[in-house]
Amino acid sequence: MAREQMRIQSPNGIDLRSAGMLVGEANKFQSYIMMYHGEYKMNCKSLMSMLAFPVGPEADVVIECEGEDEEEALKHITEFIKNLKQ
For this UniProt entry, which residues form the secretion signal (predicted)? Predict the structure, then answer.
């Protein structure tokens, strides 16, 4: 299992557009990819899951990957989130 804590830098947080792009990126990997925000746990491969709990700008989240490509998935997803600009 690989995990990293990070802060959402996007001025809109994780909105519909960025959630859709994040789901597309997460589905490129075989690993399970989860995002934790406070007490909420979201599956990064499910748009409904990502939209169920709001993640605003400057929110602290934890990205957790588990599977055969977990290190690559974690690196890719955290870089993708860091580069979200709207």
Answer: none
